[in-house]
Design goal:
Helix content is 34%, strand content 31%. With 146 residues, it is α+β, with helices and mostly antiparallel strands. The protein has a single domain (5-136), classed as Trna Endonuclease, Chain: A, domain 1, CATH 3.40.1350. The strands form two sheets. The protein has a seven-stranded mixed beta sheet with strand order 1-4-5-6-7-8-9, with helices on both faces. Strands 2-3 form a two-stranded antiparallel sheet. α2 (13-26) crosses α3 (32-45).
Length: 146
């Protein structure tokens, strides 16, 4: 069964609004941590459940490894948000988000770059059954299975 992207887009609608609100209030040019703090406050204000700086350990043969990854935000238990304040988002930054989505089996991932005059917000969806990362229009951008 293919994931329902239209339903997931509705599921992340309020989170997207929070991201736009943070950029509108703070504007461009601040560092990543300022935007993270603003987002924390906005999510609290909108009463959107979240965890910040969530630590995850990959597993190997079912056992947790010592390796540590820190997810900027996990909202509603299934939406990962990675915050950036850079000249432009690149493939390494997207790969980081995609790996977090796969490791946590999260269907929704958002990477946001607050640095510009407009927030650059990219949404992706993870189909755990097919092991694919998809764009909002259903195009496969990354495969974890050959």
């Amino acid at each position: 069964m293919m994931i329902d992207i239209d339903n997931l887009k509705g599921h992340i609608f309020d989170v997207m609004g929070a991201l736009y609100e943070v950029h509108k209030e703070l504007g461009p040019g601040l560092n990543e941590y300022c935007y993270q703090e603003g987002l924390k406050m906005q999510l609290e204000e909108q009463e959107i459940p979240f965890k910040r700086e969530l630590i995850i350990h990959p597993t190997y043969h079912g056992k947790a490894m010592d390796a540590i990854y820190r997810v900027d935000f996990l909202c509603k238990n299934d939406i990962i948000i990675e915050c950036k304040s850079v000249d432009e988002l690149n493939s390494d930054m997207r790969a980081q988000l995609f790996n977090y989505m796969r490791l946590l089996k999260c269907p929704c991932g958002i990477i946001v770059n607050f640095a510009g005059k407009k927030a650059d917000i990219q949404r992706y969806f993870y189909d755990d059954e097919e092991k694919n990362i998809l764009t909002v229009d259903g195009r496969i951008v990354h495969r974890y299975r050959q």
